[in-house]
Amino acid sequence: DGGITQSPKYLFRKEGQNVTLSCEQNLNHDAMYWYRQDPGQGLRLIYYSQIVNDFQKGDIAEGYSVSREKKESFPLTVTSAQKNPTAFYLCASSSGSYSYEQYFGPGTRLTVT
Amino acid sequence: AQTVTQSQPEMSVQEAETVTLSCTYDTSESDYYLFWYKQPPSRQMILVIRQEAYKQQNATENRFSVNFQKAAKSFSLKISDSQLGDAAMYFCAYRSEGYGQNFVFGPGTRLSVLP
């Protein structure tokens, strides 16, 4: 059963700690994306990757980092430099060519106190 | 840069009635794709419908249809026979043609369905 998994669903951290959010896909998609969603708002692009070992900053990359060592995986690290990290984080993937729509994971709700 | 606008932050519809959600976008490109995504309370983003700009025919998926007006840069979503399960946030999204293009999402419209 193909899809995108994000874990955990809820994550709690103390201020000043780095935290890594997991995103795995078995859709054989080339492109993967991380979005941030704040209450009542739309999606803002954090980072994206079109191919393994390559990624680019989105609109709000400050305080975040990513890696893309495997096609299936695109973890997001929220660093202590991110001033307001509490948010809902969505991972998505896309084949990048024939079928342009993005497929989304279930999301991770991060709360930093 | 492309922008997507959804001018209705909230809408409501009576069960079994029809509702139309508005979306406008700004682009200088001629080839692109438009999408409507639904985000129910579970927060899982679900693709509702897609439209290729080169197609004149409006896309339809069961109770969901679009009114695509390319010259006016308008892309509205019509939901017919509304059901309680249609209650969600709806996001309009734009994607340029070509490999490696990113999505631009609108701010969303919250739809309530009244029994």
Please summarize what this structure is.
Chain A has 113 residues and is an all-beta fold. Chain A is built from no helices and eleven strands. In chain A, the strands form two sheets. In chain A, strands 2, 4, 5, 6, 9, 10 and 11 form a seven-stranded mixed β-sheet that branches. A four-stranded antiparallel β-sheet of chain A has the order 1-3-8-7, with no helix packed on it.
Pick out its properties.
heterodimer, A: 113 residues, mainly beta, seven-stranded mixed β-sheet, four-stranded antiparallel β-sheet, 11 strands, globular, B: 115 residues, six-stranded mixed β-sheet, 12 strands
Question: What can you see in these coordinates?
Answer:
The complex is a heterodimer of chains A (113) and B (115). Chain A contains no helices and eleven strands. In chain A, strand 4 and strand 5 form a beta hairpin. Chain A has strands at 4-7, 10-13, 19-25, 31-37, 43-51, 54-57, 64-66, 76-78, 87-94, 103-104, 108-112. With 113 residues, chain A is an all-beta fold. In chain B, strands 2, 5, 6, 10, 11 and 12 form a six-stranded mixed β-sheet that branches. Chain B has a four-stranded antiparallel β-sheet with strand order 3-9-8-7, with no helix packed on it.
How much β-strand is present in the residues of chain B? over 45%
How much of the polypeptide of chain A forms β-strand, as a percent range? Answer: over 45%
Helicity level of chain A, as a percent range? under 10%
Report the total helices of chain B.
Answer: 0
Helix content of chain B: under 10%
Low-confidence stretches of chain A: none
Q: Mind telling me the C-alpha Rg of chain B?
A: 14 Å
Structural class of chain A: mainly beta
Oligomer state of the chains in this structure: heterodimer
- The averaged pLDDT of chain B comes out at 94
Element-by-element helix/strand order of chain A: EEEEEEEEEEE
The largest inter-chain interface, given as chain pair and residues per side, is:
A-B, 23 and 22 residues
- Name the helix and strand elements of chain B from N-terminus to C-terminus, one letter apiece: EEEEEEEEEEEE
Question: How many extended strands of chain A?
Answer: 11
Distance between the termini of chain A: 36 Å
Rounded to an integer in angstroms, the radius of gyration calculated over CA atoms of chain A is: 13 Å
Number of separate strands of chain B: 12
Overall morphology of chain B: globular
